[in-house]
Amino acid sequence: MSIYDQRPWLARYDQGQPHDIEVEFGSVLDMFGACVRRDPGAPIIRYFDGALTRGEVDELSGAFAAGLADAGFAAGERVALFLQNVPQFIIAMLGTWKAGGIAVAVNPMNKERELDLILRDCGAAVLVCLEDLYQDVAAKVIGGSSVKLVVTTSALEYQTRTDDRILGRIGRISCDGTLDMATLMGRYRGQQPPGPALGPDDVAFLTYTSGTTGPPKGAMTTHRNVVFNAQTYRDWIGIGPADVILGVAPLFHITGSIGHVALSLLTGASVVLTYRFDPAVAIETIRDHRVTFTVGSITVFIALMNVPDAARDALATLTKIYSGGAPIPPSTVAAFQNTFGHYIHNIYGLTETTSPSHAVPLGSAAPVDRVSGALSVGVPVYSTIVRIVDEENRDLPPGEIGELVTEGPQVVAGYWNKPEETARALPGGALHTGDVGYMDDRGWFYLVDRKKDQINVGGYKVWPREVEDVLYEHEAVREAAVVGVPDPYRGETVKAYVSLKPGVTATVEELAAHCKQRLAAYKYPRQVEIIDELPKTVTGKILRRELRARARGQAG
């Protein structure tokens, strides 16, 4: 049976006539409010052995908003969320919107340097932070930022387990000069500040994506973007209130924000959180909570397959599986299906497309490119037009390789306080993705390369320049160049080539440790090679492509 027989509307993408989807709500708060009214007593967040109902989340987020308002928080100000996958992330995000603010999702793996850049760029007035992250990271940079109020919380809240392999390592920490989140919400419980009415074009949150040079860029994700792609997940995959979502993607990441949180707020499907991903805990959680859907990096599913004695029937209910953020080898999809009996559907998007712009229809198998062996990333989702263009921005026919340019209601409004970057990446509102690929004659899309030098480590994006800058801080480093090299688990990993200053010595272990202290765990180079001279052009530009070829030759 052909793909068109299964999903007749897919054929329309060849002619650039997308299937329309009506945006049902003006803001995420409208969407969540409708969900609460349908059944306020239904659980919507599950966290280990704890649960919160829709009504409780509504009440807690209202109390959080009232506390912000009483502290002088103004509409349009930013609240930075420096949290793991805990219920407080969702409560604080909703509370920020109820106070008329903009939520800023911050990677909890960030170190002082990275957190400082984001806080300065967004001008956050409030920081919501786990106690250990405050003690280890945030306390060292708050003084030089715009933050006026720090709210701390513990991963031990909203559940009772203390012997868990994850939570058993966590204790309560007293954070001087901060306000405890539970105390704040207890003080204002029962209050729901009126707050300004949010519209579809108001910014819901900033999600930071690294730039090739300079500081990171905050993608301005509007309420329209969030509502639209929450509906895309719902309708494309068929998610309803009886479904259970496993939150394996980090909530600060666009996949977690939309494919876990927003989807739950729209449909009422409960989202199960486990603080941080642990494959053995994930399998127990899927079995115990009868999880039906998740979306995450392919490394998640590789890890599940590698859990010793993982029972096939533990994942019996997990029938709706999607993976994006990193290339998926067809062999891994086949191995997972052989192990657990379920097919992993590909999904593709960027921070700037508010998660999906392409996906494989549920129940369909993605074709594989005969030449490269690449698995198709799917077809454009609802109301989305994707063009393949050449260097002059001219449309290319099926089979021709070029850059993907995406237009649709999920494309973000631009980058926070960066009009030049916005104009360059989003001319006329069409996103020039920087990803290179082609569309076949049936409308399936394939990625064949990246236009830029970005490294994709298990779904996390790493720019060589940032790692190189840290390497250059080491007193022994003369020149440094960073490339992505194939990794069987992460898809890619970071490798650094370094030349040393004359008369100075350093070991590869010292250089790796230097980076590890200053960069998030996924960014520091797992491989370091010291060479006499880095390859360059006649003008002195370092040739990363030659280093990538060298790495491939060494791997071969």
Task: Characterize this entry briefly.
By secondary structure, this protein is an alpha/beta fold. It has a 7-stranded mixed sheet, with helices on both faces. The protein has a 5-stranded mixed sheet with strand order 12-13-14-15-16, sandwiched between helices.
User: What summary fits the major beta sheet?
Assistant: 7 strands, mixed
Q: How many strands?
A: 25
The CATH homologous superfamily of the largest domain is termed ANL, N-terminal domain
CATH class (first level) name of the largest domain: Alpha Beta
Measured as a percent range, the helix fraction is 25-40%
Helix-and-strand structural type: alpha/beta
> What fraction strand?
15-25%
In CATH, the topology of the largest domain is named Rossmann fold
Strands in their spatial order, largest beta sheet: 7-6-5-3-4-8-9
Individual helix count: 16
Mean pLDDT across all amino acids: 90
Per the principal axes of the C-alpha atoms, what is the gross shape?
A: globular
CATH architecture of the largest domain: 3-Layer(aba) Sandwich
How many domain regions?
3
Low confidence ranges: 1-17
Question: Radius of gyration over alpha carbons?
Answer: 23 Å
Span of the ends, CA to CA: 40 Å
